[in-house]
Amino acid sequence: MSSPNRSSADTKDQILDAADEFFGTLGFAATSTRLIAERSGVNKALIHYHFGSKQQLFTNVLDRYYARLEETVRTHLGQGDNARERLLHLIDSYVDFLAENHLFSRMIQREILGGQHVERITQIMLPMFQLGRAVVQSTYPETKTGPLEASQLLVSIYGMVVASFSYAPVLEGLWGEDPLAPPALERRKAHLRAMAELVMQRLEH
Amino acid sequence: MSSPNRSSADTKDQILDAADEFFGTLGFAATSTRLIAERSGVNKALIHYHFGSKQQLFTNVLDRYYARLEETVRTHLGQGDNARERLLHLIDSYVDFLAENHLFSRMIQREILGGQHVERITQIMLPMFQLGRAVVQSTYPETKTGPLEASQLLVSIYGMVVASFSYAPVLEGLWGEDPLAPPALERRKAHLRAMAELVMQRLEH
DNA sequence: GTTGCATTTAACCGATCGCCTAAATCGATT
DNA sequence: AATCGATTTAGGCGATCGGTTAAATGCAAC
After folding, report:
1. Are B176 and B77 found together in one domain?
2. Are A95 and A185 in contact (CB under 8 A)?
3. How far apart are CA B54 and CA B38, in angstroms?
4. Residues of chain A with C-beta less than 8 angstroms from the C-beta of B192
5. Nearest nt (C1') from A47 Cα
6. Does A10 map to a domain?
7. For B122, which of A115, A173, A187 is closest by C-beta distance?
8. Are residues A183 and A93 in the same domain?
9. Is A52 left (phi over 0), alpha (psi -120 to 50) or beta?
10. First CA to last CA distance, chain A
């Protein structure tokens, strides 16, 4: 009664997978429920039966990612001996997460730009942002004010990290190689680590 | 004969202005030609009469921005005594440009993410990217290889610059103030300048 | 085997989409 | 005033959209 039978869960997962693919590559507005149904090999009406509406299907796709992200952050948050190592490790693991879920960053970016789900995204990012700012400020008091204040740093670091993923389709044309392939990812991680270390060195004088 | 009469040019501009607004805020797929016609106070069929299709209207909106951007870059490119000052000035003027045309950055971002106009955007950004890489590499030979190579730096700087604009709707919720208002913009510019100087100091040893 | 419930299906709904057509209107030229 | 091409208009085209309906099917309990 309370536990769903297996075929139902399978169907929902297949729908979520197809929705993930198309929402991530085409965007919400450009993706039709018929396209999702066709790709997942499922009747179109099942989407509304299982998820209610296209909007609710989208939030279900997002929620699945939030769950993965939360788990990733939780397992990687405390790793590292000092604050510096913890921050570097956090950036590294976030890059890995985006690499494994690169459609997620594109989806998030688009929705931030789009306006429809801004409140929800803000609501999710606000505590993470405040936590990050508090950690940075307590570790480096200089970031409480001035040109390197924590809020600005967080936006910059986030922008740097996300850039190579959300711009992947264009970067492939600019770089002449797949930015999401392992060698390019390793070079990107090395660069981001160097940039973070540069900032930290400056903050440590 | 070759010169269009004034009313035609006015109509086209009104259509372009309305298209700009909705493409910038809602995105291409979520904007209907009827909405554009309604806002610009123009008959729906005129859009296709003057621009052929919704797609071509969109590229016309983009081209108008490219013209402004090209003019801005051209007037600001040579300013500054040395390479260091020129790069700092270029970042500053690009931030100003995005501030004055913040719908443009959102449109570009979305299309980079979207996939439909990726080839066109790549085609436009490729020469700028190659030029930027050549300038950075010749100014700082260390950027020819290693973790601070020019390609990575350009992506990072671009990501930092664009972040505060494309994330503006969310940042407003995070910061508690409008990220596009003059005081926030000045603080952002000061931060970006500090970050750029940090990198340059490192490259100059 | 029959009941009862969750799941799946085909067919369809009104609304809206981008786009087109034919006729009306405008405006400069003669 | 008449002409003619450029511009604008109302109306409608087929296609596709998200969503709904009622009937068919699968499946476990009795």
Report:
1. yes
2. yes
3. 15
4. 156
5. D19
6. yes
7. A173
8. yes
9. left
10. 63
Contact predicate A198/B198, CB 8 Å? yes
CA distance B71 to chain A (A): 23
List the CATH number of the domain containing A149. 1.10.357
pLDDT tens-digit series, residues B1-56: 334 454 667 899 999 999 999 999 999 999 999 999 999 999 999 999 999 999 99
Does B203 have pLDDT greater than 70? yes
Q: What is the CATH number of the domain that holds B71?
A: 1.10.357.10
Number of compact structural domains in chain A: 2
Which pLDDT tens digit goes with each residue over A49-72? 999 999 999 999 999 998 898 888
* Global confidence as pTM: 0.86
Query: For residues B34 and A123, is the Cβ–Cβ distance under 8 A?
Result: no
Q: Do B37 and B66 fall into the same domain?
A: no
Residues B93, B147, single domain; the answer is yes
Are B32 and B78 members of one domain? Answer: no
Q: Which domain holds residue A91?
A: 77-204
Interatomic distance A36 CA / C5 C1' (Å): 27
Residues A115 and A45 in one domain: no
The SS3 call for residue B109 is helix
With CA atoms as reference, the chain A residue closest to B164 would be: A155
Residue A29 sits in a domain of what CATH number?
1.10.10.60
Mean pLDDT of A3-10: 61
- The reply to whether A66 falls in a domain is no
The span from the CA of B171 to the CA of A142, in Å, is 22
Of A10-19, B56-65, B115-124, B164-173, where does mean pLDDT reach its minimum? B115-124
Structure confidence by residue, pLDDT tens digits, B68-114: 988 888 888 778 888 888 888 888 888 899 989 989 988 988 888 87
d(CA B161, CA B132): 15
Q: Do A82 and A11 reside in the same domain of the chain?
A: no
* 8 Å CB contact of A169 and B112: yes
Q: What is the pLDDT of residues A90-148, one digit of tens each?
A: 888 888 999 899 899 889 888 888 767 788 888 888 888 888 899 899 999 999 999 99
Q: How far is the CA of A1 from the C1' of D29 (A)?
A: 12
**Strand C positions with any atom < 7 Å from protein CB?**
6-12, 16-22, 26-28
pLDDT(B124) > 90:
no
Alpha carbons B109 and A1: distance in angstroms, whole number: 46
Determine whether the distance from the CB of B45 to the nearest atom of strand D is below 7 Å: yes
Footprint of strand C on the protein (CB under 7 A): A 4-5, 7-8, 10-11, 42-46, 49-50; B 5, 7, 31-35, 44-45, 48, 52-55
- Measured from Cα to the C1' atom, the residue closest to D17 is A32
Query: Do residue B110 and residue A112 have CB atoms under 8 angstroms apart?
Result: no
End residue of a domain, out of A29, A57, A85: A57
With an 8 Å Cβ cutoff, are B115 and A26 in contact?
yes
